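Hypothesis: this fold can be encoded by more than one sequence.
Test: take the structure tokens below, design a sequence, compare later.
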């Protein structure tokens, strides 16, 4: 409630705008050549989250030099660390199901988890130390600039019912970085993939953008509510490709019965939103990408409608859903507004691989390669 207030998210709007413009400029420079979209999206969203959560970019594209600050991590390495985190969170570990085999670590997952934990811990220790040093240096004049600053102030509040220890601060920080970076990247990549499979969707999106925005400026966050078809594309993408197919694990608090099955209190529960989103009893033609189904529909993404729950529902729904939607809507709208999209030469829509990877998230198995063609005045890409 403290980290994701509307006022705080609005105060970071300039960061989101700056980084989206950097993405558009980078794609403009790569026009007419196949680009690996995921890499560009990942860089943009990691920069947004780093600046909002940590106060500055703690990654760099080049390899570490001897004079680089200790908290700086090469961007490629940080990306690999986040991807490893998401993979290990979703793997099936034999030792969890056959406890007497756990000590053998037959698949090597436990060893990988421990190594990854140490790498993240070193990075997050540097981040907290840098922030604490600024607090000490500025004294009473200190003003929180980012989410880590807010967390450190909360940790000093001894009236809190649950005390925030140092390991809690690191866990919160990692949750925000990982949860905000990987998920938004995956959603936008799937949206562009589906649009490439169904070109008429792009034509309808372009018509709406030209009519509402015009070709003399970029889409702003305040414009999104006037772009119902863009919002429908995001909803349809999240229906077909929820980034967390099983949400986060839950626990039944009391005994209940579901479809004739007894579910005792204390049972671990996984909600399969991937299956719900493709249930023919709920959706017409569930395997088809049809954003039109959401135009004029009252169904929203806030957990009020159980047929569409990409962020979950109730008190344990994703706390950062409003931030995620801001980033996805702004990025996708401008990507569709600024460029025509097509597959690399020689590839047809039927040949585009749409397989998913299995894990706590469901990214594309084969990263999307696409060719972009600018369709706005050139000066806008450098504005």
């Amino acid at each position: 409630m403290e980290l994701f207030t509307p006022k705080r998210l609005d105060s970071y709007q300039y960061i989101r705008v700056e980084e989206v413009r950097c993405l558009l400029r980078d794609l403009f420079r790569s026009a007419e050549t196949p680009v690996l979209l995921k890499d560009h999206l990942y860089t943009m969203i990691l920069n947004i989250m780093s600046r909002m959560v940590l106060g500055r970019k703690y990654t760099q594209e080049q390899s570490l030099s001897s004079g680089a600050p200790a908290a700086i991590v090469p961007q490629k390495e940080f990306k690999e660390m986040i991807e490893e985190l998401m993979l290990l969170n979703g793997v099936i570990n034999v030792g969890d199901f056959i406890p007497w085999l756990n000590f053998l670590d037959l698949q090597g997952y436990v060893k990988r988890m421990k190594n990854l934990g140490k790498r993240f811990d070193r990075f997050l220790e540097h981040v907290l130390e840098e922030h604490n040093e600024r607090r000490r240096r500025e004294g009473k004049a200190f003003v929180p600039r980012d989410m880590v600053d807010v967390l450190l102030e909360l940790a000093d509040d001894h009236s809190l019912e649950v005390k925030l220890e140092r390991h809690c601060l690191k866990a919160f920080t990692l949750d925000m970085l990982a949860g905000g970076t990987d998920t938004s990247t995956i959603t936008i990549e799937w949206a562009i993939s589906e649009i490439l499979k169904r070109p008429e969707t792009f034509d309808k999106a372009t018509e709406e953008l030209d009519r509402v925005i015009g070709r003399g400026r970029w889409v702003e966050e305040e414009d999104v509510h006037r772009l119902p078809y863009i919002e429908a594309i995001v909803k349809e993408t999240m229906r077909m490709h929820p980034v967390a197919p099983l949400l986060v694990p839950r626990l039944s608090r009391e005994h209940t019965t579901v479809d004739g099955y007894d579910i005792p209190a204390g049972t671990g529960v996984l909600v399969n939103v991937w299956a719900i989103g493709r249930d023919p009893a709920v959706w017409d033609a569930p395997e088809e990408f049809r954003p039109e189904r959401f135009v004029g529909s009252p169904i929203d993404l806030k957990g009020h409608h159980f047929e569409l729950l990409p962020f979950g529902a109730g008190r344990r729904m994703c706390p950062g859903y409003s931030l995620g939607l801001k980033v996805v809507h702004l990025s996708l709208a401008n990507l569709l507004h600024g460029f025509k999209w097509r597959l690399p030469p020689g590839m047809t829509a039927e040949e585009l691989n749409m397989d998913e990877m299995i894990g706590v998230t469901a990214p594309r198995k084969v990263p999307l390669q696409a060719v972009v063609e600018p369709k706005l005045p050139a000066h806008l890409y450098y504005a």
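Residues 210 and 337 are 8 Å apart (CA to CA). DSSP finds twelve helices and nine strands in the chain.
Hypothesis status: open.
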